[in-house]
Amino acid sequence: MKRESRNAKGARVVGLGSAAPEGVMTNFDLEKMVETSDEWIRARTGIRERRIADEKTATSDLSYLAARKAMEAAGVSARELDGIIVATATPDMLFPATACLLQDRLGARNVAAFDLEAGCSGFIYGMAIGDGMIAAGLGETILVVGADTLSKVTDWDDRGTCVLLADGAGAIVLKPSNGPSGILSTHLASDGSLGPLLCQPAGGSRRPATTETVQEGLHYLKMKGNEVFKYAVRAMEDSTNRALKMAGLESKDVDLLVPHQANYRIIEATAKRVGVPMERVCTNIDRYGNTSAASIPLALDEALKAGRVGEGDIIAMVAFGAGFTWGAAIVRW
Ligand code: UT7
Fold first, then answer.
1. With b meaning 16 or more CB within 10 Å and e meaning fewer, what string describes 295-331?
2. Of 34, 77, 290, 314, which one's alpha carbon is 20 to 30 angstroms from that of 104?
3. CATH class for the domain made up of 2-179
4. Cβ of 263 less than 6 Å from ligand 1
5. What integer pLDDT is reported at residue 178 of this predicted model?
6. Atom 4 in ligand 1: which residue has the minimum CA distance?
7. How many angstroms separate the alpha carbon of residue 69 from the centre of ligand 1?
8. Is the distance from the beta carbon of residue 19 to the nearest atom of ligand 1 less than 6 Å?
């Protein structure tokens, strides 16, 4: 599946917010759990510490905190929302949708609410769908959340994954664009043939959870990290270039590149191939690890608070994740 779009009417981001659990897990904590070292983790991934949710906190809890902040920043009440999209691979339950749990908790009424599962690319997918809903006249105010609690599906004995994965949420409010600022282009793509390289094998309808699947650890996230790495760099480069081209822009026009935070080396390689110097790249993987669908809005929110984003700036966001899925969005702030 490949979909490229240039928005006809278009949406703009009117509010942004993010949330992360308070609990910090450092590389030194991980050294006590698996055979690894702070030095290896920093050198191979760029991560120093990550936020991990406690037992009581689920994806909808972090989504709620991020959503409230985004709505406050936008000056939008729950009653004004027409749509809620939650991009997540770790919903509270398989159903009902986490978006419906969020709708109830926010007190939104007469609102379309659904989950979107595109792994770590979920936020870009959600933004593209929200943009499309506005362009199609399906609503005027759409809340898009990217949230994951990957720690809940982490095998804490697997050093190949447990050093990477973390929890967080980010949210944006979209409204119709009434000026030059807005989502200029989006590019979405997928390749399901590579799905087994990054998956949670059991717990769905193919292999429902049984005592055996739990004993075999098939409810945990499995990843062939080095193979994912190769595809991620190529796909993120391609997607950014396509989205830039659709927007009639080039890499030199990018004021800030906000890539999915999976691995510092992936970020660096992608930026180099796209042609954006690291001073114009947003990274916070050192403090947050890989928060999946939350990573882009978490990083963008940090950049905004640090004064790195000005009105009219061109922001390129790009992600890659389970599916495989990938995608990019070009936004004029
Ligand atoms: O979110 C979207 C999707 N996810 C990603 O994009 C993640 C992509 N992949 C990665 O970030 C990297 O592949 C990893 C960080 C997961 C692994 O880094 P790598 O450089 O690809 O290492 P590797 O898997 O090729 O393993 C190299 C060595 C192996 O040892 P031998 O066989 O060379 O002796 C591993 O067993 O490093 C070993 N290793 C570790 N050593 C210490 C693997 N994990 C660890 C660890 N600590 N945590």
1. bbbbbbbbbbeeeebeeebbbbbbbbbbbbbbbbbbb
2. 290
3. alpha beta
4. yes
5. 82
6. 262
7. 35
8. no
| Residues of the chain under the 50 pLDDT cut | 1-8
Which sign, positive or negative, has the C-alpha torsion 331, 292, 20, 132? positive
Task: Write phi, then psi, for 186 (nearest 5 degrees).
Answer: -135, 150
Which residue has the CA at smallest separation from atom 8 of ligand 1?
A: 229
Q: Provide the angle, in degrees to the nearest 10, between the axes of the packed helices 38-45 and 264-274.
A: 20
CB neighbour class for 158 (10 Å; exposed up to 12, middle 13-18, buried from 19):
middle
Residue 9 pLDDT:
59
Gap between the Cα atoms of 322 and 320, Å rounded: 7
Spell out the residues 6+ positions from residue 332 whose beta carbon is closer than 8 angstroms to its own: 180, 181, 182, 184, 312, 313, 314, 315
Task: Say which residues have a Cβ less than 8 Å from residue 194's Cβ, sequence separation at least 6.
Answer: 231, 323, 324
User: Which residues are known to be catalytic?
Assistant: 120, 260, 290
Q: Is the CB of 283 under 6 A from ligand 1?
A: no
The arrangement of secondary structure in 183-201+211-332, i.e. its CATH architecture, is 3-Layer(aba) Sandwich (3.40)
How many whole angstroms separate alpha carbon 188 and alpha carbon 318? 10
Contact assessment for residue 120 and residue 290, using Cβ atoms and an 8 Å cutoff: yes
